[in-house]
C-alpha cells in the first residue's frame, strides 16, 4: 500500500500499430494509501505523505548507527560509479550528485539506476524507515559491483563501449556478463532484449534480419523518451510479427471443394465450374502463377462469399481488403517511416492480421479505386498482383522485400468499365449475373433463412416462412439483382418474431391462416377484404404463443410496412409516347420507361434525365431515322406534315434523373417511343426492348442481355425484343425464365416496331388508324 507521488513531465508515444507510450515523471515522495475511495475509471484514494517530512530528515533516533550505515552506503556507491566511464557526462554528473545530495536520498536514487528486479525495487519502496532502506540497498550495490568486476574481466576488449552504454542505460546493461539463473529470468523482463531474441529466432529473410539488427542496435542506444524510440520499437515488433516463413498447409481435394462450394452456394453454376477448374489446375501444377480471378457482378450476388468458400476449401486463412474509395497509393504500399504516423500498407497489415504468408486475399471493389494527388493505387496493385514481381514486394514502411507469391488473390468488382485497363489485363473476369426470382427463393430457404434464424436464436419450430411469402418479399419489398436486401428483410422479420417469442404474446392463429398455400400467386393474398390479423395483434394476451409463428402477407405488412414496389407497368403505358427499355447498371438489370412528348416549337430536341453523350447520339439517330421514314410509316406531326420537326419541339425524358445513364442500347426504345408519339398508338404494355440502332435502321447487338432479361422477368413483362445477334446470350438464361418470356429477335427497326405494337406497325395497318386521328 505504499507508492510514489510523481509529477508527469512529458508523454510521448503513438497509438499505432499498438499503443506504446513513454511517460517521464519526477518522483516527489513516498505515500501510503489510507483508504481507497473509488476504483473506476481510475483509482482515487486518501493518502498520507511518508517521507521528506521533518521527522524523517532530522529526528533520527540512532544518529550514529545511521551515520555508519550511510557512510558505508556512500562508499559502495562511489566505488560503483567510479567503475563506470567518467568521461560520459551522465556518469560525471552522478558522481557529483553523490556528494551533493543528502545521504538519505541516495538509496532511492541508486536503486533506480542499478540492475534490480521489479520486486526488489518494490521492497525498497516499501522500506519506509531509512535505516531499513539503507540495509536493504547495500547488498544490491555489492551485487552490482561484483557483477561489474566480472564484466570487466570477461569483456576487457569491449570495456569502453559497455561502460558508455551502462552510463546511459544503466538499468539495462550493467552486469550483462554475469549470467546467473536469476538474472536470466530477469532478462526476460527486459523487452528490448526480448525483442532482440525474437528477431534472432524469427525466420525473417536475411535482408530483413540485417535491417532489424541494425535498428535494434540503434534502439538500445536511444533514450526511451525520444519519440523515435516508440516508432522504431513498433517497426521491430511488426517485423517480428510478420509471417515470413509461416504458412498453412493446403489441403485441396477437388471433390471436397465441389461439395463445399455446392453447400455454401445455390445456383451460380458457371462461376462454380470456373472456380473448380482454377483450383484443379492449382492442384496439378502446384504453384500459383496464373491469372487472378476477378468476380464481376451486382452487389449481393455472393462474390465475397465465394471467395470465403475458396479459402475454406483450401484450408487457408481468409482476409478481405476493401479497396472502395482508396485513392492513395500509400494505402497499398505503406508510408515511409520518416513520416509522422507512418504505417504499412493494407497488404502487409493483412498479412500481419492473418499471421501466415499464404492466405486468400479478397481485393474487394477493385472497380472503385480512385486516383488522387497521392498517386495511383491501381499502379501499386499491379506490382502486388503480378506473379513475376510480387515475390519481392517492397512496402515503403518495411523497406525490405516481402514474398507475396504464396498469397492467393481474388478480386471483385461491380463493373469492368472502371477497372484500370492495366489491372484488368492481369485478371480473368468471371461474370456473376443477378438471380432470378426462383433462384432467390431457393437461396432464401436454403441459406438466408437458416442463417437469420440462427443469428436471432430462433428455431424452425418457432417461425415458419412459406415460399409464397418469400416471393412476396422479393417482388414487393426488394428490387435488386442480388439477395442482400432480401437478407435484411428476412432479418427484420426474425427480429420481430424474436420479440414475440420472447414476450410470449402471440395471438392464436385463426384457422384461415393455414390456407396460405405454397406456390400460389402472392397477389391473390393481398386482397382488400382479407381479415386484418397480424402477429402484432395483442388483443388476446392470455393465449400462449402459437408455434410456429406463420409469416403471411398481413404479418409482412405489419413488420415491413406497406409494399415498396408495385407493378406499375400497365399504368404508365396507357398513353402514346411511352416505351419500356432495358438498361444495364452495375447493380444489375433494370427496366426503364422512356417518355416523349411534342409541342409547338422550332424543331428542337430536348433530352432530360442525366444522359451521357452516346445516349444523346442515339436520340438524334432515332429522330433522323424516323424523319426519313415518316412517309413509309405515315408518321406526321401535329399539323399533319410528314416533316416531323416542322413547327414541333420534341422532349424525351428518361426517368430516375438522378442516375447518369449512357450507352447505345436505348436506341430501339427511343425509336419505338417516338413512333408511338407520332402515330398516336400505344406500345404494348408487356414488351420491353434493348438494342443499338444505325442510321440505316439496323439493330446492333448490345451487352448485359442476361441481366436485362432478368429485370424484364422481375417486372412481370412477357415479351422482350433483343437484337438478333444477341441470340447466343439467351443460352445463359435459366430455362424456366426463357419459357415464361417470348423473345423477338430483331435485325432491323421494322421488326422492332412490328413487335412493339399490337397488330404490328405495317404501313397499311397504321394508315387508317392515323387518318382517323388526324
Ligand atoms: P457481394 O460480395 O457479391 O456483394 P456477398 O458475398 O456479400 O455479396 O453476399 C451477400 C450475402 O448473400 C451473403 O450472406 C451470401 O452468403 C448470400 N448469398 C449470395 N449468393 C448466394 C448463393 N448463391 N447461395 C447462398 N447464399 C448466397
UniProtKB/TrEMBL annotation:
<dbReference type="InterPro" id="IPR027065">
    <property type="entry name" value="Lon_Prtase"/>
</dbReference>
<dbReference type="InterPro" id="IPR014721">
    <property type="entry name" value="Ribsml_uS5_D2-typ_fold_subgr"/>
</dbReference>
<dbReference type="GO" id="GO:0005782">
    <property type="term" value="C:peroxisomal matrix"/>
</dbReference>
<dbReference type="InterPro" id="IPR020568">
    <property type="entry name" value="Ribosomal_Su5_D2-typ_SF"/>
</dbReference>
<keyword id="KW-0067">ATP-binding</keyword>
<dbReference type="InterPro" id="IPR008269">
    <property type="entry name" value="Lon_proteolytic"/>
</dbReference>
<dbReference type="GO" id="GO:0004252">
    <property type="term" value="F:serine-type endopeptidase activity"/>
</dbReference>
<dbReference type="Pfam" id="PF00004">
    <property type="entry name" value="AAA"/>
</dbReference>
<feature type="active site">
    <location>
        <position position="708"/>
    </location>
</feature>
<dbReference type="InterPro" id="IPR054594">
    <property type="entry name" value="Lon_lid"/>
</dbReference>
<protein>
    <recommendedName>
        <fullName>Lon protease homolog</fullName>
        <ecNumber>3.4.21.-</ecNumber>
    </recommendedName>
</protein>
<dbReference type="GO" id="GO:0016887">
    <property type="term" value="F:ATP hydrolysis activity"/>
</dbReference>
<dbReference type="GO" id="GO:0004176">
    <property type="term" value="F:ATP-dependent peptidase activity"/>
</dbReference>
<dbReference type="InterPro" id="IPR015947">
    <property type="entry name" value="PUA-like_sf"/>
</dbReference>
<dbReference type="GO" id="GO:0006515">
    <property type="term" value="P:protein quality control for misfolded or incompletely synthesized proteins"/>
</dbReference>
<dbReference type="InterPro" id="IPR003593">
    <property type="entry name" value="AAA+_ATPase"/>
</dbReference>
<keyword id="KW-0378">Hydrolase</keyword>
<feature type="binding site">
    <location>
        <begin position="297"/>
        <end position="304"/>
    </location>
    <ligand>
        <name>ATP</name>
    </ligand>
</feature>
<dbReference type="Pfam" id="PF05362">
    <property type="entry name" value="Lon_C"/>
</dbReference>
<keyword id="KW-0720">Serine protease</keyword>
<dbReference type="InterPro" id="IPR027501">
    <property type="entry name" value="Lonp2_euk"/>
</dbReference>
<dbReference type="GO" id="GO:0005524">
    <property type="term" value="F:ATP binding"/>
</dbReference>
<dbReference type="InterPro" id="IPR008268">
    <property type="entry name" value="Peptidase_S16_AS"/>
</dbReference>
<dbReference type="Pfam" id="PF22667">
    <property type="entry name" value="Lon_lid"/>
</dbReference>
<feature type="domain" description="Lon proteolytic">
    <location>
        <begin position="573"/>
        <end position="759"/>
    </location>
</feature>
<comment type="similarity">
    <text>Belongs to the peptidase S16 family.</text>
</comment>
<dbReference type="InterPro" id="IPR004815">
    <property type="entry name" value="Lon_bac/euk-typ"/>
</dbReference>
<dbReference type="InterPro" id="IPR046336">
    <property type="entry name" value="Lon_prtase_N_sf"/>
</dbReference>
<dbReference type="InterPro" id="IPR003111">
    <property type="entry name" value="Lon_prtase_N"/>
</dbReference>
<feature type="active site">
    <location>
        <position position="665"/>
    </location>
</feature>
<keyword id="KW-0547">Nucleotide-binding</keyword>
<feature type="region of interest" description="Disordered">
    <location>
        <begin position="508"/>
        <end position="534"/>
    </location>
</feature>
<feature type="domain" description="Lon N-terminal">
    <location>
        <begin position="1"/>
        <end position="145"/>
    </location>
</feature>
<keyword id="KW-0645">Protease</keyword>
<dbReference type="InterPro" id="IPR027417">
    <property type="entry name" value="P-loop_NTPase"/>
</dbReference>
<keyword id="KW-0576">Peroxisome</keyword>
<dbReference type="Pfam" id="PF02190">
    <property type="entry name" value="LON_substr_bdg"/>
</dbReference>
<dbReference type="InterPro" id="IPR003959">
    <property type="entry name" value="ATPase_AAA_core"/>
</dbReference>
Amino acid at each position: 500500500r505504499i507508492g510514489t507521488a510523481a509529477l508527469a513531465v512529458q508523454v510521448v508515444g503513438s497509438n499505432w500499430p499498438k499503443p506504446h507510450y513513454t511517460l517521464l515523471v519526477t518522483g516527489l515522495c513516498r505515500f501510503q494509501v489510507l483508504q481507497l475511495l473509488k476504483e473506476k475509471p481510475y483509482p482515487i484514494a486518501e493518502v498520507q505523505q511518508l517521507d521528506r517530512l521533518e521527522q524523517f530528515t532530522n529526528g533520527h533516533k540512532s544518529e550514529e548507527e545511521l551515520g555508519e550505515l550511510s557512510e558505508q552506503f556512500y562508499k559502495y556507491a562511489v566505488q560503483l560509479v567510479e567503475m563506470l566511464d567518467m568521461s560520459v557526462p551522465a556518469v560525471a554528473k552522478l558522481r557529483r550528485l553523490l556528494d551533493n545530495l543528502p545521504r538519505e536520498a541516495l538509496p532511492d536514487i541508486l536503486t533506480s539506476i542499478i540492475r534490480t528486479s521489479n520486486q526488489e525495487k518494490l521492497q525498497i519502496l516499501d522500506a519506509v524507515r531509512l535505516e531499513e532502506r539503507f540495509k536493504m540497498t547495500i547488498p544490491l550495490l555489492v551485487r552490482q559491483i561484483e557483477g561489474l568486476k566480472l564484466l570487466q574481466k570477461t569483456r576487457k576488449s569491449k570495456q569502453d563501449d559497455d561502460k558508455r552504454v551502462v552510463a546511459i542505460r544503466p538499468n539495462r546493461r550493467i552486469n550483462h556478463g554475469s549470467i546467473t539463473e536469476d538474472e536470466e529470468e530477469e532478462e526476460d523482463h527486459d523487452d528490448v532484449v526480448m525483442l532482440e531474441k525474437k528477431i534472432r529466432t524469427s525466420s525473417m529473410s536475411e535482408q530483413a534480419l540485417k535491417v532489424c539488427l541494425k535498428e535494434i542496435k540503434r534502439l538500445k542506444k536511444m533514450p526511451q523518451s525520444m519519440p523515435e524510440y516508440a516508432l522504431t520499437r513498433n517497426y521491430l515488433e511488426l517485423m517480428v510479427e510478420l509471417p515470413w516463413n509461416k504458412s498453412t498447409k493446403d489441403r485441396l481435394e477437388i471433390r471436397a471443394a465441389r461439395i463445399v462450394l455446392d453447400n455454401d452456394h445455390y445456383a451460380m453454376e458457371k462461376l462454380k465450374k470456373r472456380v473448380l477448374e482454377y483450383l484443379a489446375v492449382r492442384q496439378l501444377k502446384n504453384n500459383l502463377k496464373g491469372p487472378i480471378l476477378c468476380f464481376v457482378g451486382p452487389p449481393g450476388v455472393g462474390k465475397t462469399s465465394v471467395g470465403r468458400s475458396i479459402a475454406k476449401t483450401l484450408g487457408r486463412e481468409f482476409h478481405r481488403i476493401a479497396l472502395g474509395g482508396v485513392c492513395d497509393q500509400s494505402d497499398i504500399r505503406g508510408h515511409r517511416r520518416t513520416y509522422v504516423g507512418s504505417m504499412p500498407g493494407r497488404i502487409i497489415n493483412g498479412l500481419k492480421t492473418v499471421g501466415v504468408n499464404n492466405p486468400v486475399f479478397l481485393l474487394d471493389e477493385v472497380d472503385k479505386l480512385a486516383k488522387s494527388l497521392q498517386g495511383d493505387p491501381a499502379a501499386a496493385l499491379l506490382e502486388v498482383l503480378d506473379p513475376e514481381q510480387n515475390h519481392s514486394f517492397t512496402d515503403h514502411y518495411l523497406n525490405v522485400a516481402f514474398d507475396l507469391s504464396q498469397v492467393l488473390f481474388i478480386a471483385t468488382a461491380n463493373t469492368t468499365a472502371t477497372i484500370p485497363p492495366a489491372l484488368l489485363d492481369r485478371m480473368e473476369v468471371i461474370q456473376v449475373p443477378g438471380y432470378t426470382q426462383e433462384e432467390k427463393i431457393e437461396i432464401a430457404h436454403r441459406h438466408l433463412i437458416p442463417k437469420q434464424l440462427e443469428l436471432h436464436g430462433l428455431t424452425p419450430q418457432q417461425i415458419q416462412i412459406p415460399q409464397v411469402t418469400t416471393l412476396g418479399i422479393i417482388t414487393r419489398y426488394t428490387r435488386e439483382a442480388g439477395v442482400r436486401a432480401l437478407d435484411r428483410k428476412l432479418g427484420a422479420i426474425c427480429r420481430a418474431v424474436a420479440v414475440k417469442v420472447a414476450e410470449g404474446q402471440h395471438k392464436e392463429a385463426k384457422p384461415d391462416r393455414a390456407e396460405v398455400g405454397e406456390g400460389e400467386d402472392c397477389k391473390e393474398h393481398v386482397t382488400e377484404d382479407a381479415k386484418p390479423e397480424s402477429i402484432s395483434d395483442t388483443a388476446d394476451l392470455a393465449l400462449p404463443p402459437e408455434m410456429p409463428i406463420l409469416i403471411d402477407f398481413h404479418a409482412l405488412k405489419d413488420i415491413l410496412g406497406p409494399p415498396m414496389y408495385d407493378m406499375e407497368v400497365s399504368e404508365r403505358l396507357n398513353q402514346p409516347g411511352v416505351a419500356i427499355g432495358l438498361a444495364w447498371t452495375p447493380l444489375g438489370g433494370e427496366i426503364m420507361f422512356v417518355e416523349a412528348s411534342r409541342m409547338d416549337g422550332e424543331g428542337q430536341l430536348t433530352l432530360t434525365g442525366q444522359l451521357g453523350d452516346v445516349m444523346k447520339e442515339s436520340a438524334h439517330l432515332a429522330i433522323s431515322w424516323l424523319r426519313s421514314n415518316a412517309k413509309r410509316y405515315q408518321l406526321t406531326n401535329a399539323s399533319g406534315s410528314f416533316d416531323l420537326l416542322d413547327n414541333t419541339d420534341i422532349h424525351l425524358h428518361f426517368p430516375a434523373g438522378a442516375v447518369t445513364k449512357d450507352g447505345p442500347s436505348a436506341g430501339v426504345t427511343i425509336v419505338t417511343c417516338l413512333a408511338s408519339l407520332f402515330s398516336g398508338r400505344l406500345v404494348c404494355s408487356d414488351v420491353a426492348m434493348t438494342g443499338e440502332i444505325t442510321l440505316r435502321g439496323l439493330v446492333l447487338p448490345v451487352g448485359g442481355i442476361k441481366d436485362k432479361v432478368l429485370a424484364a422477368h422481375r417486372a412481370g413483362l412477357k415479351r422482350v425484343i433483343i437484337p438478333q445477334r444477341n441470340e447466343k446470350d439467351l443460352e445463359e438464361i435459366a430455362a424456366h425464365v426463357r419459357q415464361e418470356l417470348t423473345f423477338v429477335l430483331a435485325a432491323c427497326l421494322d421488326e422492332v416496331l412490328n413487335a412493339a405494337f399490337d397488330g404490328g406497325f405495317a404501313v397499311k395497318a397504321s394508315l387508317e388508324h392515323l387518318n382517323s386521328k388526324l
